[in-house]
Specification:
By secondary structure, the protein is α+β, with helices and mostly antiparallel strands. The chain has 2 domains: 60 residues, no CATH class; 90 residues, Orthogonal Bundle (Arc Repressor Mutant, subunit A). Helix content is 34%, strand content 12%. The chain is built from 5 helices and 5 strands. The strands form 2 sheets. The chain has a 3-stranded antiparallel sheet with strand order 1-2-3, covered by helices on one side. It has a two-stranded parallel sheet with strand order 4-5. α2 packs across α3 and α3 packs across α4. It starts with 7 loop residues before the first strand and ends in a 14-residue tail after the last helix. The model has no long low-confidence stretch (mean pLDDT 93).
């Protein structure tokens, strides 16, 4: 049985503009993470060790007490080129850094045969929108060549991206910043 079939869910409170995150765990690690996730995902996680580890590590990260989440990732909900691009991001773009969609496309090696201008960058944007493990694989660090770029969830999604980039020191805090200093 694939590990993705043994998902169990928990809700983690956050200071993010989207509210709490919904996290799915398996025996291998975190398989899904979403901003402002849907309540009622079943089955609920009942493993106290997993609940504590996920809640404490995400809380410490969002409070600015650590730069690493240190949670294992179950990659089973991504495959092929999508997984390659996500792993490239996860392995090569550290806290406080950003990369453009086009640079990530080139660095991943997935789009070597693509000749249409902008296609690889647009495809990476779509891959980031479909990132099953948001925050753990930091799609918020992928930006447009001419600005912040997009982020799933419309206006709230952009607010989450700005919040996370401010937390990481990429953007200067605004007067309404409600994160750690």
């Amino acid at each position: 049985m694939p590990q993705s079939r043994s998902l169990s869910w928990l809700t983690v409170p956050t200071p993010l503009p989207s509210g709490p995150m919904r996290i799915a765990v398996t025996p291998l690690g975190v398989a899904a993470a979403g901003y402002g996730g849907r309540d009622g995902e079943t089955p609920p996680c009942t493993d106290p060790a997993k609940i504590t580890a996920v809640t404490e590590r995400i809380g410490a990260y969002l409070a600015g007490r650590t730069r690493e989440l240190g949670l294992p990732i179950d990659w089973s909900l991504s495959s092929g080129p999508h997984r390659t691009v996500l792993r490239t991001l996860w392995e090569q773009v550290p806290y406080g850094r950003t990369i453009t969609y086009g640079e990530l496309a080139a660095r991943s090696g997935v789009f070597e045969d693509v000749t249409e201008p902008g296609l690889a960058a647009r495809t990476v944007g779509q891959m980031m929108a479909a990132n099953p493990v948001a925050l753990l694989v930091p799609c918020h660090r992928v930006v447009a060549a001419d600005g912040i770029g997009g982020f799933g969830g419309g206006r709230v999604g952009i607010d989450v991206k700005r919040w996370l980039l401010t937390l990481e020191g990429v953007l200067e805090p605004t007067l309404d910043w409600n994160g750690p200093l």
